[in-house]
Design a protein that fits this description.
This protein has about 675 residues and is of the alpha+beta class. It is built from 14 helices and 25 strands. The protein has helices at about 25-40, 55-75, 125-135, 230, 235-260, 265-275, 305-315, 340, 375-410, 465-480, 485-515, 605, 620-625, 635-650, and strands spanning about 10-20, 80-85, 95-100, 135-140, 145-155, 200-205, 210, 215, 280-290, 290-300, 330, 345-355, 355-365, 420-430, 440-445, 450-460, 530-540, 545-555, 560, 570, 590-595, 600, 610, 615, 655-665. The two termini are about 55 Å apart.
């Protein structure tokens, strides 16, 4: 397995497996990776020694995420290869190298962010996690496959028992610290009773200012929690050292992974996987809901077979923290069901608070401990604050997205009217994905056997353009149903836009004078509009003899007609934008769309999409593309154009994109 760009290496061991492209692939990949790493630990090679648990955990996590990505976004069988190499150069450095290969023949990574409706918990975070955890990584494309590889160094460590953990002979260490503030409480402190927690005496209620072994923490105290592997190998001093030296890097990694996540379930999924197995054997996150009980959003366990049992138990035992806990990590009683959690240990609960409001609760636990060091509890509190801020941001984004969707539904037709004898297809992609934009379309009956189609583009995009869209669509429907012909509709719409612009400018000027600021231009909202407006009249019964089309273009890209022989012609004449000049006479053109001919209408988001200095329609690019679309129905032809526009440049379109395709049957 040769890794592109990797340092030359000598192969010690390798393993390979092929997995089906189904939901069981990720768990099978995790078992495969753990088995391979466990086998390699016994190799008689001085440079390898024992593969640290943390390295193994990170390998398993990354393999799981990459296989998940491959299954979700490629949908093919997956090959996983693991190798143990010794890199040549400055000494012999052992390294784990992993390749995950799918068989989707494309150079485009699909599904980032996940498609609408896709379960974000099931979607992988693979490349983001690989970039954070791996020493180096890359992607190799072949004709019929894609491979993502990563490399993690293996540093030899000594196996040293942490106080309270079994020794190699199975016995417990006898040098447990018993002084106040030591890393572990004394076993003589007794079981859980009268405020004690897993053998650590707690004087008073933990949520009301009690002390743990004489150490006061205000209105809450956190129990001891096992930290990542670097802290396992050095006892109590290593705990403190790791927190001092590793906390900032861990929190920085968490902040980067959580930043920019727009789905709260994705945030909880990332949070749980950052904690397990680094800090905890299991974790759970509840999200507060408006007017209802908290929702158990995420459950994670280092032992995958226990996740579902753990979830069922947690759903029966809702987590309720006292108000005095606020954002502190407070001790929580270790649950009594070993089938779900594992053997006894220490647990922490922490409210997730952002902007003074509680958004959820975090619970995590580690088996085999009496309590959690205060330093680690503080780190968990810092982590919880970052999770809370990410959740608050995701909720705000969701609210804004919901408002945008509602607005968009009001600006666009709920359905496309069916025209007798005509196949129709629409593509609509506003800038920003879900925001309502300045492009709009409509198809509706106008009475007396007439059908109207509209494709418009307000100058600009975003909410300001959407305001104009909200005005124009109902005006057009009203004018068409009043019986005005094509030219008259455009002339009246042009006057309405001019009057609206004057009113907006007057209102804006009055507000500016009152506020003592400069005068706005045009009232702050552009009223210029390009529009393609046409009427269709089916000829013969159900349009069997073709379609008579009358249309006019006001500053809009001219429509094209594709004939069955592959030839393409332009229809209509260019005319001035709407809203620029008050008195304009607009002229229309009438022609027949014969059976098998297709009328293609687009906005400038298609024709002017740029790749460097070139535009998509340079050299009649759109017409050339249409010449290769003979025989396609309206939907397939529209999709072919959409794909070509997106493939034209690396960057996505920076303007709203819309098109309307009408094909005479």
């Amino acid at each position: 397995m040769a890794v592109p760009g990797a340092v030359p290496a000598a192969r010690i061991a390798a393993a390979r497996t092929s997995l089906p492209g189904n939901p069981l692939a990720a768990s099978a990949a995790r078992r495969f990776a753990r088995t391979a790493l466990a086998d390699w630990t016994s190799l008689d090679f001085p440079a390898v020694g024992r593969i640290p648990d943390r390295v193994a955990d990170e390998v398993v996590l990354l393999v799981s995420e990459l296989v998940t990505n491959a299954v979700v976004h490629a949908g093919t069988a997956v090959e996983v290869s693991c190798a143990l190499d010794v890199l040549t150069g400055d000494g012999e450095v052992p390294s784990v190298v992993v390749e995950v290969t799918d068989h989707h023949p494309t150079r485009f990574l699909r599904g980032e962010p996940p498609d609408e409706g896709e379960d974000p918990v099931c979607a992988g975070h693979g490349l983001r996690l690989v970039a954070e955890l791996a020493e180096c990584w890359g992607t190799a494309y072949r004709r019929d496959s894609k491979t993502v590889w990563f490399q993690l160094p293996v540093t030899a460590v000594e196996s040293v028992a942490l106080p309270g953990e079994p020794l190699s002979d199975g016995s417990l260490p006898t040098d447990l610290p018993t002084a106040p503030g030591d890393a572990l409480g004394s076993p003589k402190d007794g079981p859980l009773k009268d405020g004690s927690l897993n053998g650590a005496s707690l004087k008073g209620d933990p949520s009301s200012g009690g002390t743990l072994n004489g150490d006061s923490r205000g209105d809450a105290y956190a129990v001891e929690l096992l930290a990542p592997d670097p802290r396992r190998v050095g006892g109590r001093d290593a705990d403190a050292d790791w927190v001092r030296e590793g906390a900032l890097s861990f929190l920085a990694e968490a902040s980067e992974l959580l930043a920019g996540q727009f789905d709260e379930d994705m945030v909880t999924s990332l949070a749980a996987q950052l904690l397990v197995p680094r800090f905890a054997d299991w974790s759970a996150v509840w999200l507060d809901t408006e007017g209802g009980p908290p929702r158990l959003a995420q459950v994670w366990h280092a032992s995958e077979s226990r996740i579902e049992t753990l979830r069922q138990l947690l759903e029966k035992e809702p987590l309720e923290l006292p108000a005095t806990a606020r954002g502190r990590a407070v001790p929580w009683q270790w649950p009594s069901d070993p089938s779900a959690y594992g053997p006894g240990g220490a647990a922490l609960a922490c409210r997730l608070i952002a902007g003074g409001r509680t958004v959820g609760t975090l619970l995590l636990g580690r088996a085999g401990l009496m309590r959690v060091p205060g330093e680690v509890a503080g780190l968990v509190e810092d982590f919880a604050r970052r999770v809370a801020l990410a959740l608050a941001s995701a909720r705000q984004y969701t609210r804004q997205e919901t408002i945008s969707r509602v607005l968009q539904r009001g600006l666009l037709p709920s359905r496309i009217a069916r025209i007798p004898g005509v196949e129709s297809a629409v593509v609509y992609e506003p800038t920003g994905g879900t925001s309502a934009g300045g492009d709009f379309y409509d198809i509706f009956p106008a009475g007396n056997g007439r059908w109207v189609f509209v494709l418009g583009d307000v100058c600009g995009n975003g909410p300001e353009a959407a305001v104009v869209t909200g005005l124009v669509r109902p005006w057009l429907r009203l004018l068409a149903r009043e019986g005005y012909d094509v030219g008259a509709v455009l002339e009246r719409l042009n006057r309405m836009l001019g009057e609206e612009a004057v009113e907006a400018a007057v209102e804006g000027a009055a507000e500016a004078v009152a506020a003592g600021v400069g005068l706005p231009v045009g009232g702050g909202v552009s009223r210029f509009l390009s529009l393609l407006y046409g009427e269709l009249v089916p000829l013969g019964e159900e349009g069997k003899d073709g379609i008579r089309c009358t249309l006019a273009s006001a500053g809009h890209p001219l429509p094209l007609v594709l004939r069955p022989d592959g030839s393409v012609r332009t229809v209509a004449e260019p005319q001035i934008l709407l809203g620029v000049v008050d008195d304009v006479a607009y002229q229309s053109e009438t022609f027949e769309l014969a059976p098998g001919e297709t009328l293609v209408c687009v906005t400038d988001g298609v024709t002017e999409h740029r790749s460097g200095a070139r535009q998509f329609d340079d050299g009649d690019g759109l017409a050339s593309l249409l010449g290769d679309c003979v025989g396609l129905d309206a939907g397939d032809l529209a999709e072919r154009i959409r794909q070509a526009v997106h493939a034209f440049a690396v960057e996505p379109p920076d303007d709203d994109l819309a098109m309307l395709v009408l094909r005479a049957r």
